[in-house]
Amino acid sequence: MHILITGAAGMIGRKLSERLAKDGSLNGKPISKMTLTDVVAPAAPAGFSGKVDARVDDLPAPGVAQKLLAEKPDVIFHLAGVVSGEAELDFEKGYRVNLESIQHLLETIRKTPDYHPKFVYTSSIAVFGAPFPPAIYDEFHLTPLTSYGTQKAMGEFLLADYNRRGFLDGVGIRLPTICVRPGKPNKAASGFFSNIIREPLAGMEAVLPVKDTVVHGHATPRSAVGFLLHAASLTRAQLGPRINITMPGVYCTVGEQIEALRRIAGDKVVARIRREPDEMIIKIVSGWSERIDPKRALELGFTVEKSFDEIIRIHIEDELGGKIAA
Which of 15, 21, 34, 65 yields a CA-CA distance of 20 to 30 A from 273? Predict the structure, then answer.
């Protein structure tokens, strides 16, 4: 089996390739090759016995999708994208990366004879927009209120149509905010959800740009990889015509996040959070759904953490070696 991962240098792409290398197989089939691509060089995962082609590519550029798909990879994980805050600040870049990339991949698949790969697409709960019911159900209409959400929704529509026409076997997963993200802060509008946990645990100050009453959904990087692998295992019969699925998450207020941090790490760590309102982030976050009804995803076998305390403990275990900065 040959697997292609776009956005492979990103946090989720890196962890996905590491998990696949460790397992050595997907859906019961041995993995013989992984093609990893991003705008910066992806790292080849350790311990993989098959071939790794780690590439630097500008996916929306002419001819790049054709090169990536020339060997007809069996499974494509399309993770490449510009994050929410950056897509809002740079209109052209957001549409070029978030929309044109998937367009080029899908069109190349359509035009390649005798080729029908599994295509797993990472979307976002940003495809939904206010006003909201008490909880968003999977069939709720897509009314995004940001450029990022609009781009992701357009990707969902394209994937569903190419799947309907039989050009590929597609599935889209709408991710909650991945928290706690390792590494440094990025330009995602949702980044503060991770920052207010990650930086204090590492002994650094973090800025909280929204009120403690903001409600949001979270899942760990560990769960995100699990979502992707499980999505790749689902059949057409299991999915039916609605192939874009809203993932489950742990829903809580920012204040509840902070109290979970206090229970696990203490007052001194919590004191490293500094409140500094940011009107742009406040506006973006106010247009996101607060709670999701995960019924369909759970029925399809997706799983997630049970509490935000568990999310913090997983971050400490996976990224901090079990240690918290004094």
Answer: 15
